[in-house]
Amino acid sequence: MSVELGEFKEFLGTYNKLTENCFMDCVKDFTTREVKSEESTCSESCLQKYLKMTQRISMRFQEYHIQQNEALAQKAGLMGPR
């Protein structure tokens, strides 16, 4: 299996889980075909919150990774002390 296909499958899994979670949290009325404004607003907020959370986790992971790399380089004597 190619890397691109694996990444795409992971993306689809994440997208499906996000869709399911936001749908379960936001859609409560099945008596009409129309999406109520409250449901639409809730869904948009759910998506925004997820995207912000994902971005924040990614930033923290990068910071942690940089710190770990610096610590390893310092341990190996490749960098002077801070």
Automatic annotation (TrEMBL):
InterPro entries per the UniProt record, alphabetical: Mito_inner_translocase_sub, Tim10-like, Tim10-like_dom_sf
Top-rank taxon: Eukaryota
GO CC entries: mitochondrial inner membrane; mitochondrial intermembrane space chaperone complex
GO function terms (MF aspect): metal ion binding
Predominant cellular place of this UniProt entry's protein: mitochondrion
Coiled-coil annotated residue ranges, if any: none
Gene Ontology terms: biological process: protein insertion into mitochondrial inner membrane; protein transport
Keywords tagged on the record: Chaperone, Disulfide bond, Membrane, Metal-binding, Mitochondrion, Mitochondrion inner membrane, Protein transport, Translocation, Transport, Zinc
Gene3D superfamilies: Mitochondrial import inner membrane translocase subunit tim13 like domains
Residue span(s) of domain Tim10-like: 7-63
Alphabetized Pfam families for the sequence: zf-Tim10_DDP (PF02953)
Subcellular location: Mitochondrion inner membrane
Stated family: Belongs to the small Tim family.
Stored PANTHER family: MITOCHONDRIAL IMPORT INNER MEMBRANE TRANSLOCASE SUBUNIT TIM9B
Function: Mitochondrial intermembrane chaperone that participates in the import and insertion of some multi-pass transmembrane proteins into the mitochondrial inner membrane. Also required for the transfer of beta-barrel precursors from the TOM complex to the sorting and assembly machinery (SAM complex) of the outer membrane. Acts as a chaperone-like protein that protects the hydrophobic precursors from aggregation and guide them through the mitochondrial intermembrane space. Mitochondrial intermembrane chaperone that participates in the import and insertion of multi-pass transmembrane proteins into the mitochondrial inner membrane. May also be required for the transfer of beta-barrel precursors from the TOM complex to the sorting and assembly machinery (SAM complex) of the outer membrane. Acts as a chaperone-like protein that protects the hydrophobic precursors from aggregation and guide them through the mitochondrial intermembrane space.
Subunit structure: Heterohexamer.
UniProt free text on domains: The twin CX3C motif contains 4 conserved Cys residues that form 2 disulfide bonds in the mitochondrial intermembrane space.
Protein name in UniProt: Mitochondrial import inner membrane translocase subunit
Name of the gene: TIMM9
